[in-house]
Amino acid sequence: MPPPYSAILFDFDGTLADTAPDLGNALNRMLAARNRPPLPLDTLRPLSSEGARGMLKIGFDKHPGDPDYDTLRNEYLDLYEAHMLCDTRLFDGMDEVLNTLAARDIPWGIVTNKLERFALPLISQMGLTARASCVIGGDTTARAKPAPDPLLEGARRIGATPAQCLYVGDDLRDVQAAHAAGMEPVVARYGYLGNEEPPEQWGAAIHIHHPTEILKYL
After folding, report:
1. Which residues are designated catalytic?
2. 15/189 Cα distance (integer angstroms)
3. Is 56:30 a contact under the CB 8 Å cutoff?
4. What whole-number distance in Å separates Cα of residue 95 and Cα of residue 197?
5. pLDDT for the residue 121
6. Residues of the chain with pLDDT under 70
């Protein structure tokens, strides 16, 4: 087991909170407007960590660079913004983790690729802003994950060195960003895990199947 760490940063979608229902509902509203049947949540969940890109890929087979992608993306984001806290919840056990971190005076923060336009109000409405030592969005720094920039900014804001930090995420880019930042990556196996490569091949030594398992490394 690695030595205990003294700070922790979390990805948001698929790690700290289960946002897939609201991300999927925005896509299904778009499909309904076009008289197309909705897609089940089980189908949408694996791509939820990719946000609009993942939803448009599975719902419309559209990709960045396609002629109508930006129009569809703007429509999707507007729908999501209007209904982004209907069914979003912390994962089971995560509130216990955050309470334990506070009781043990261990700083923690959120580093997500979700744009600040969505991340800041959503996290605030969930009552997490006052509890977190930082909230870093996908456009807070010049580059988003898998670049190390947002993780390094998160560590700076919570007053920790990268070597002191765990970074918990459910996507390959989270592991890549953690390695690039000099942090220890933790794979949240309860999350969305939408990459083609299985998590065992992502290059992380620590895997957890429930949020509370993270506490033994701190």
Report:
1. 11, 13
2. 9
3. no
4. 30
5. 97
6. 1-3
